[in-house]
Amino acid sequence: MALFRITTTRIAETQRVFPQLSVLLRQLSDASTDLKAILAARIPKEQERVKSFRKQHGATKVGEVTVDMMYGGMRGIKGLVCETSVLDPDEGIRFRGYSIPECQKLLPKAPGGSEPLPEGLFWLLITGDIPTDAQVKAISKEWAERAELPAHVVTLLNNLPTSLHPMSQLSAAVTALNSESKFAKAYASGVHKSKFWEYIYEDSMDLIAKLPVVAATIYRNSFKDGSGIGAIDTSKDWSYNFTTMLGYDNPEFVELMRLYLTIHSDHEGGNVSAHTVHLVGSALSDPYLSFAAGLNGLAGPLHGLANQEVLIWLQKIRKQIGDKATEEQLKDFIWKTLKSGQVVPGYGHAVLRKTDPRYTCQREFALKHLPNDALFQLVSKIYKVVPPILLETGKVKNPWPNVDAHSGVLLQYYGLKEMNYYTVLFGVSRALGVLASLVWDRALGLPIERPKSMSTDGLMKALKAA
């Protein structure tokens, strides 16, 4: 491990003399289970790469801003850098260059399992490399060891009214966890900005470790008998422990949670939750405060709450038509929905112009494990019927389903029927992506975010002058 502490200058000097050292360093990176040490070796190289790129192309224009973009929620404006994932309109999400099917194939799995472990996805997001089984097991163990909650957060959770929405409870608990922030303490002590990323990393690892405990406590207090969640097994993975704390022991459901927590983790930097964490973090708020802000954005019906909206709509169909609705009956119902001024929930996406790969992998999971489930069969029929109708209206750019059109169906099948809780699961997963990005925000020294705004009058005058 001493090699990871060599300065960037010394590494460069030594590599010129001993080219084989590059291979050795790469082999050590592949073998080491110390994620922070690997990151410490990688950050100087990435800092230099970004610095060189900005020096050469800093004045290069990457796009235009139209009036419609300004009034339309900045949609389509290229104004952020997100290293962890990129969303292509025609291809879908790629995590550090890997598609979801590739992640399902390449990322390590639990013994006997077939779905990727979220720990592996986090390693990939942080480093850009597919981890080994040993590296993923090390992350599982480390998160289990960091999972204990401080007493005041346990007291807070156990005294919140069960009528309070689970997302509000999650946001409150994460905010209260900021008492544990190593970054806040280091900043107050005057630590140099070059060290910021290290404390952001430590806080992020602690927060990710504690989130399943917080989320499971909320679930059992709000929907069950309020009994304890039990002890964490340090030999098991993050998803297994989370599922057990929720009170479920079905191996298939554990596999579903591994898939769910992996695919909901990141969706580039411009969505509300990711952008909010980045924005609040740019003010040097600690990861707890930054992530709590992102959770409050995720709680909105146009973002993370959308999967609940889909289930409510599906229940409406079942009540009015029944489980054995024909395609013709569904077409009639959907046309009535559209003509009444409502949308078809779960269809369309701000960026995607194809079926969401996250929808596809959940559909494949359902085809494998619950092909005869009535709700899944209804969703499958809707998948056939809705896109042609939306195309026929001539008003929809993307008629294809997104992730929210399917996730609730799987949770319902395995007995997690409390729809108000679904966004909490989304939040636990989203922590992986946004916190990995936050570490890199500080490693690259990104400044406080402060775009220029204009009034309508000012914009009109500027256009007239132009």
Short description:
With 466 residues, the protein is mainly α. It has 22 helices and three strands.
Q: Distance between the terminal alpha carbons, to the nearest Å?
A: 60 Å
Spans of at least 5 consecutive residues with low confidence: 1-25
Strand/helix succession: HHHHEEEHHHHHHHHHHHHHHHHHH
Spatial arrangement of strands, main beta sheet: 1-2-3
Anisotropy-based shape: globular
Largest sheet: 3 strands, antiparallel
Helical fraction: 55-70%
The whole-number mean of residue pLDDT values reads 91
Number of helices: 22
Rg over alpha carbons? 23 Å
Number of E-type strands: 3
Strand content: under 5%
Specify the structural class.
Answer: mainly alpha
SSE layout and pairings?
Layout: H1 8-17, H2 20-31, H3 35-57, H4 67-71, E1 85-88, E2 92-95, E3 98-99, H5 100-106, H6 118-127, H7 133-145, H8 151-159, H9 166-176, H10 182-188, H11 196-223, H12 238-246, H13 251-263, H14 272-282, H15 287-298, H16 306-320, H17 327-339, H18 357-369, H19 374-393, H20 404-413, H21 422-443, H22 456-465
Antiparallel strand pairs: 1-2, 2-3
